[in-house]
Amino acid sequence: MVDVSVIIPVYNSAQWLQETLESLLVQRFTGKWEVSIYNDSSTDNSMDIIKSYKDKFISNGIGYVIGSDESTSKPKGVGYTRNKAISQSSGDYLCLQDSVSAIFTTVCINIELNVILLLQDDLMLENRILLQYQQADDHTLVGSRFIREPTDSTIRYTKWANTLNSKQLYTQAFTSFGPTLIIPTWFMSRRLFNKYGPFDETGQGTPEDLILFYNLIRGRERGEGVELKRVDEPLIVYRYHINNTTLSINEETIWELRVKALEEHVLSKWKYFTIWNAGKQGRRLYRTISEENKLKVKSFCDVDSKKIDKGHYTYEESKEKEKPKVPIVHFTKATPPFIICIKWELTGGEFENNLLSLNLIEGIDYYNFS
User: Where is the Glycosyltransferase 2-like domain (predicted)?
Assistant: First the structure.
């Protein structure tokens, strides 16, 4: 019986793979565990490095399972590769560890750029498996805080992910930052994965982690006992590299998934709501939501006197003969609940102070979307 399987998808990861594997060898976990690596048609010497570590892991009492797709030189993507690594493993719990190349991305995009390219060579700190195993059960996705390298990269994103409280793991699940537990820190039972997975295998351009994350949120909404939890200390070093600004997962794809989840889990339960931001992002949300939810929009609210003085937003794209007009009011005149389409910490504290002045409760009176 294997307690934990560390899941590593690989594609042309030779530059970082050795360091990733070395970080596993210092784990303090004393249970029975294994490493399950699946190589997705790498054309570099990743496979040679993978094989070279087998004896080292076995001699340390750690299982070492290798899989590889050599039938084609074209990689099938991170969703496929993670699924293969999971299917060949046997642990009761799955610890996701990334060692991926430019073709593999996770959903922490739209941070400083509209789309960015992430290369990952994440390293485990020595207590990761031990502490997450202690927190895990059959129904819980466990994440952790992380150390960002370089320390001056994605500062807003890193602060956001590392400071969310237990309630915000759910209430902030619809923001542009992606899953509130970042996928390189995911630790879950095989039972949980089998029920809400597998990862989407569509391939490049698909945010497979966000899709699975929303499946888990959906399970919680259905009363199936799904929980999100974070170990409140750093358990991985999460490296960030910008190689390119053209890639892979289009921001529009992320937007559509977020809006669909917001409508399903939040707007479907509200009789009416206000969109906080009469600017570009707020209007875009209004245009994207269903016709049923458009009718629930009581107003837009803002602080911009020019927008407020205009009095309303006209939905010109409507097919109705008389175009819908949505009032624009000052935030102090608006009626909660709110969907907030303003990015935090970009207004010198003005927005945060305005929100605080209303004495609202997150998850009841408002949800963040931007």
Answer: 5-99
